[in-house]
Amino acid sequence: MPEPRTFTEQNPIRVFLLDDHEVVRRGLADLLDSEPDISVIGDAGTVDHALARGPALRPDVAVLDVRLPDGDGISVCRELRSQMPELACLMLTSFDDEEALLDAIMAGASGYVLKQIKGSDLVSAVRTVASGQSMLDPATTARLMRSLRADPAETPAVPSELASLSPRERDILALIGEGLTNREIGKKLYLSEKTVKNHISRLLAKLGVQRRVQAAVLASHLEHPDTGGHRAR
């Protein structure tokens, strides 16, 4: 495990902001920049702008609005982390949305907080995720875990669908379940990112689901005995 990162006034946490409301971005920037160990190095109001600016700025933490006019912060999180695996993403949203929380976790987000959070708590959350720790809204997370346990009927019965997967597709599904990005899966399995995308498209079709996060939930069934011997070499 990597050592927790430490930051100081001389080596501050470099923060990038994504929110489509300029007033919100300015407020967040003023709040965070007032802290001696935090420096806001850039911001964006759209998904395209964030994907263009973020990698060039090399932030330590990205504070990302979940819902945006041209997309969502969760896909930005996934893409930025595929280019910068050390980046900590803190998702910020007005909505107490269990599905978005699960999506954020699977995209590799380090934290998920509601915009109603107090300023001092947001500063603490930025420091927490920058140090390599998780900062997920505990009430929402607990409710999500309860709903997943309480509603197994909402998850399709999958043994036969899993049996239709090739060994490579099962490997990839397991890694999706661990929250890895396409790029990280490719590195782990020595495949190109395009090949990984093609495999994922096929396995989603075989599992009868449309979204990556649904496949991630189904990945827990790979612990079944009939999946033995198909782990990645």
The CATH architecture of the largest domain can be named as 3-Layer(aba) Sandwich
Structural class: alpha/beta
CATH class of the largest domain: Alpha Beta
Number of continuous helical runs: 11
Low-pLDDT segments, ≥5 res:
151-158, 224-233
> What is the rounded Rg?
19 Å
Question: For the largest beta sheet, what order do the strands appear in spatially?
Answer: 2-1-3-6-7-8
Count of beta strands: 8
Mean pLDDT: 81
**Tally of domains:** 2
β-strand amount: 5-15%
Which fold does the CATH topology of the largest domain refer to? Rossmann fold
Shape: elongated
Q: In the CATH hierarchy, what is the superfamily of the largest domain? A: Response regulator
**Roughly how much helix do the residues carry, as a percent range?**
40-55%
SSE run: EHEHEEEHEHEHEHHHHHH
- Characterize the biggest β-sheet: 6 strands, parallel
Domain HTH luxR-type: 158-223
Keywords: DNA-binding, Phosphoprotein, Transcription, Transcription regulation
Pfam families: GerE, Response_reg
Domain Response regulatory: 14-130
